[in-house]
Every structure is written in C-alpha cells, then in structure tokens.
Amino acid sequence: MARGAGGLLDGGFVFKLGRLFRTPYGGEGVDFIDQLNYQFTGGLILIFIIIISLRQYVGKPIQCWVPPEFTRAWEEYTENYCWVSNTYFLLPHEDIPAEELEYEKIKFIGYYQWMSIVLAGQAMMSWVPHLLWRVCSRRLPLLLKSAKEASIPDRELRLKAVSCLVATLEEQAESQSRFRRMKSFVNRCLCGIAPNARLTVLFLFVRALFIANCLGQIYLMKCFTGFNSTFFGLQLLQDLTKGEEWDTSGHFPRVTYCNIKVRVMGQPKPARLVSFNKHYSILKNDSYSCSTLQKILFM
C-alpha cells in the first residue's frame, strides 16, 4: 500500500500533473479567465482530491484512544464505526451529554467522510460552462485558425485557409438571410436568436454561468460544512490572524466525539467515546471515554 502511494507521488506524476496548468486546454477562443475558471480551479481541486483520498483510502483517516480492556478487534470496530457515523464536537467548557434527548441539540459533523466526493462534484461543475461553450461554438476555433493561416507566407496553405474561411462565412451569411426572410414574429421566436447574434449571446451566457458557478459553489460549501455565514472563508482567515485554534472556534475540529454500544456478558452496554486532552475515564453510567482524532486534510 505504501509503495503504491509513493508511486503516485513520484517525479513523473508531479511533472504530468504540472502540465495540467501549463497546457491551455480548449484550443482557440479560450482566454486566461476561462482557464482560471475551469482549468486551474479544476486542477487545484484535483490535487486536493488526491491528497484527501490517499489519507482516507490508503492511510487511517481516524484514530481512537480506547480503554485497556478494548481488544484490537474492538478498537478497529470503534474506528470504523465512528468514521462512517457522524461525530460531534464539544467546546472545553461544555459538558458531555448524559441523556439521549440532549444529543438532539448537538451539532454533528458529517462532512469529513464525503469531502473527496463533494470536491469531485465541484471540479466537474467548474467544467460545465466551458464544455457548453465548446459544444455550442464548434466552428469558432475553425474560423480563428483559418484567419491566422490566411496571413502565413506559404501560398498553398494560405489559399486553403482562405477558402475554408470564405465557405464558413458564406454559410453564416446564408443562415442570416434565411432568418431575415421569416416575416412572422412567431417563426423567429421558434427558430431562436438571429445567427449573427448567437455567438455573442452564447458568450455572455457562458460568462454568467461562470459567475453563477462560483457563487453556487460558495453557497454549497456553506451548507455542506454547516457555517452560518456565506463569508465563512473570511471568518476562517480572521481566526488564523487572531491565533484562534479549532478547539475554541470549533471550525474543522481534529478531535471529535462518538457514541457506540458494546456488549458485555451478552448485554448491550452503551459506550460513549469522547476525547479531551488525550485522557479517558469511566463515567457514572459505566460509559467509556476515548478520543477520536480526525486526521483528514481539508482545504
């Protein structure tokens, strides 16, 4: 497993991954803003997905501190159970809930397990506007390429480029002429936008999709992580500048609490697996406490 993980991060893989940012995917008609929206953003998210997936599926995403009477099988069961179930976080001054009804007021953390999947969805969403642009403007790269080749010194290649450019422009003019011959307003509405304006409308629509994608992903992350404010990024930066750690702010905690049930002498026995300062103790209701360390990278 370790050797496989090392192979993923060797020099050749890093070099190939760097080409994702150097090579302008999309051909003609793509500017830097387009690349920033779909290529650079998607590539950066892909790097985060690889790092998080290595931690989740190759390493150990969670580590529990268990009482001495817990066997190795119990410890593995505890870690697997706490990873697939939602854990919760308590501030240092908050007490551990003693009643089942009190857990309804607790804010559970369920985003660590799904982070790589959500990031993959965000990466695909960042490519949707660009793919729409490439599908709906198929002839634009041909026009731009023909226009460039029309100015090269090679006479034979220049004539081919000019002929291709003229044929494309003639077809565009014929489409515009057919649209103008439609006297009925209803027919024009059914046939859509005028051919000479379609590319402009498509360009503006794709730019609007890029903006909507950025705003929508910010709102998606707000709902996914459970922050109260849409400007949670600024809130995290303020915490960093003030030196406020996760144990006091509760933002992306690395130590969380988990409840499980174990069987003792054939009877189900509730066990509360919690963490605080790396100590465990036996509670009044014969529940055990341990620390659940979230060891997953989140960006």
TrEMBL record:
GO cellular component, one term: gap junction
GO BP: any one term: monoatomic ion transmembrane transport
Database matches in PROSITE patterns: PANNEXIN (PS51013)
Regions annotated as coiled coil: none
The organism's place on the tree of life at top rank: Eukaryota
Localization of this protein: Cell membrane
Entry-linked Pfam families: Innexin
Membrane-spanning ranges: 36-54, 185-210
GO molecular function, one term: gap junction channel activity
Family: Belongs to the pannexin family.
Protein name: Innexin
Gene name tied to this protein: inx
